[in-house]
């Protein structure tokens, strides 16, 4: 009880000292108002005007910067980028298609046969690992490279595209560097015959005549090639 009384007395004595420093005149002069045991800051007209001016200035500066930002685009333009990652503009050869395909036909399996000198097999395989990344970047899946055990010169690259439309897009998405990579892989091919490419419709149910009176869908319009590009 003695300690509690002593602490209470000390708190009252401290409050009296603080109250003595901030009388009525001091409170009005310094912008402080005494309410019970609290002192509140009064909002004088001068302070209100200063706050309004600061807010208005910030809004004007931000508005001016917003208006000037499009003009900076005319002065500080992005440089034109040209290099190996630009899309290839090589014109593709027309595909030999004798089935009536729609953009949703698929999956499409692509088989590419190379004949490679066995002495260059290791180097060819290393290049094809980069070709794999290129195919997958452009949307292919299920990529593989195989070698014929009866004919060691014969290599077969396989990959899949979900639909016919995806395959057409995959052909036209190769960049200049990827096109150079594909040409490098083609340079390993030897023999008088060109590289053989097969495009196979894995689920040909829509192209089969189930009844005699069903129209033959093996002939008709074929979805065209989307745009110039590169690829098998």
Describe the structure.
- The protein has helices spanning 2-21, 24-30, 45-75, 121-137, 164-172, 176-186; strands at 32-35, 38-41, 108-115, 141-147, 154-161, 196-201.
- With 232 residues, the chain is α+β, with helices and mostly antiparallel strands.
- It has 2 domains: 2-75, no CATH class; 88-232, Alpha-Beta Plaits (2-Layer Sandwich), CATH 3.30.70.
- The strands form 2 sheets. A 4-stranded antiparallel sheet has the order 4-5-3-6. It has a two-stranded antiparallel ribbon with strand order 1-2.
Task: Summarize, please.
With 232 residues, the chain is of the alpha+beta class. The protein is built from six helices and six strands, in the order ααββαβαββααβ.
Give the SSE layout.
Elements (H helix, E strand, L loop, with lengths): L1 H20 L2 H7 L1 E4 L2 E4 L3 H31 L32 E8 L5 H17 L3 E7 L6 E8 L2 H9 L3 H11 L9 E6 L31
Antiparallel strand pairs: 1-2, 3-5, 3-6, 4-5
Helix pairs in contact: 4-6
> Major sheet: size, sense and barrel closure?
4 strands, antiparallel
Beta-strand proportion: 15-25%
Which structural class should the secondary elements be placed in? alpha+beta
Low-confidence parts: 1-8, 13-30, 225-229
Order of helices and strands: HHEEHEHEEHHE
CATH class of the largest domain: Alpha Beta
């Amino acid at each position: 009880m003695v300690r509690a009384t002593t602490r209470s007395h000390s708190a009252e004595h401290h409050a009296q000292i603080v109250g003595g420093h901030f009388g009525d005149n001091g409170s009005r002069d310094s912008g402080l108002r005494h309410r019970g045991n609290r002192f509140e800051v009064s909002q004088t007209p001068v302070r209100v005007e200063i706050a309004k001016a600061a807010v208005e200035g910030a809004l004007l500066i931000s508005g001016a910067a917003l208006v000037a930002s499009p003009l900076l685009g005319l002065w500080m333009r992005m440089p034109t980028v040209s290099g190996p990652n630009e899309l290839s503009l090589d014109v593709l050869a027309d595909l030999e298609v004798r089935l009536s395909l729609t953009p949703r036909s698929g999956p499409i399996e692509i088989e590419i046969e190379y004949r490679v000198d066995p002495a260059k097999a290791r180097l060819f395989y290393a290049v094809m690992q980069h070709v794999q990344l290129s195919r997958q970047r452009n949307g292919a899946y299920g990529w593989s490279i195989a070698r014929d055990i009866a004919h060691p010169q014969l290599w077969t690259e396989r990959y899949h595209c979900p639909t016919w439309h995806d395959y057409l897009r995959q052909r036209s998405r190769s960049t200049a560097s990827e096109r150079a990579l594909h040409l490098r892989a083609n340079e390993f091919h030897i023999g008088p015959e060109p590289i053989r490419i097969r495009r196979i419709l894995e689920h040909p149910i829509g192209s089969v005549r189930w009844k005699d009176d069903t129209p033959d869908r093996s002939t008709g319009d074929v979805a065209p090639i989307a745009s110039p590009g590169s690829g098998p």
